[in-house]
Amino acid sequence: FYGNKKLSHFTPSNISKKEIIMKNLEKDTPFSLHSYDPHTHGGQYLENISSANWVSEALFTALDLDLFESLETYGANGAGVKQLSQKLETDAAALSSFLPLLESLGLLFCYQNKYSNTIITKRYLLSSSPDYLGDAIKFRKFQSQQWHQLKTSLLKNKPIKLNQESESLSPEQINQLKKKAIHELTRMKALECVKFFPKLSGKILIGGPGAQTMADCFIDTFPTLDITILIDDNPFQTDPAALSNLKRPVFNSCSIDELDTTAAKSQHIYSLILFTGLFIANDYQSILDQLLTCLPMLKPQGILMLHDAFDEHATLMARLSGVNRMLHFGGKVCSGESIIHSLQK
């Protein structure tokens, strides 16, 4: 039991009460993003929308303060407000309001007035974790600045400046942050993609932002693969020199132009052709042409996998992503069914 109930008396001796409470509480979903449910209070729903940026600001601020990293140094026992405020050089009274918010978001756990990181925080918000998403979240913070131009982008004859530079980050810092963010987000999605295949062998072609990271995950799961990475220079470029790593085989690389010239000679050679984030750009027809160029290169039983945000999946988040792409790259989120229909013509 947990919440208002007492802990069961048969708690194993090697597991603390704190660990059991923590695991039980984390089965709940402290915060989620859903469209309106007509069976709930409409006014409260609008209030939740109007204050949604408070949630992201709380997360951004915690990362800026290195709060999670600092808290981890106290070990399993955690730290009280005064201890942590001294380490972070923050005001103790202000921090005493901030920490319970992070607790409500499921990012911190409080036991006997001491705070510690939850399981999700340990996995995704500590830089020592292979699943770290901190840079991806910091990149979202950078992108959020462009959302202040949303009204301008919707008005006629009022062009907006894409990829507006940050006052606090240099162009080089922005570029490095973008690369780290693409790597972290793609790795998270790549771990889902490899599970689609019980086994996989032969040659595969991977393209789109984060192609190298996607290739890393596939070669780790299926070591015998012969992987070619399609160099995509819009809006993100893959550096061919970065494709060599002593820890794994060297990946082949191929430009879009090279792909066009060799397509006729290279029919039925790939077991898998995978594109990730392909529809970030706005040139929908050229993307379809690129896919149609690739299709003859698949083996008869080969698979074309498009990993992206589509309207049919998690619709609210997909449409938020669509507006974000419009603001930053002039792109959009497409309908998966329409893409399939276009390829079948």
Can you tag this structure with a few keywords?
single chain, 345 residues, alpha/beta, Arc Repressor Mutant, subunit A, Rossmann fold, five-stranded parallel sheet, two-stranded antiparallel sheet, 15 helices, 7 strands, 45% helix, disordered N terminus
Description:
With 345 residues, the protein is α/β, with parallel strands linked by helices. Among the domains are: 53-125, Winged helix-like DNA-binding domain superfamily/Winged helix DNA-binding domain (Arc Repressor Mutant, subunit A, Orthogonal Bundle); 180-344, Vaccinia Virus protein VP39 (Rossmann fold), CATH 3.40.50.150. 45% of the residues lie in helices and 12% in strands. It has 15 helices and seven strands. The chain has helices at 17-25, 42-50, 52-64, 67-72, 81-88, 92-104, 119-124, 134-144, 150-154, 171-193, 211-221, 256-262, 284-294, 315-329, 336-344, and strands at residues 108-111, 114-117, 203-207, 226-231, 252-255, 270-276, 298-307. Helix 13 (284-294) links the parallel strand 6 and strand 7 (298-307). Helix 3 (52-64) packs across helix 8 and helix 10 (171-193) packs parallel to helix 11.
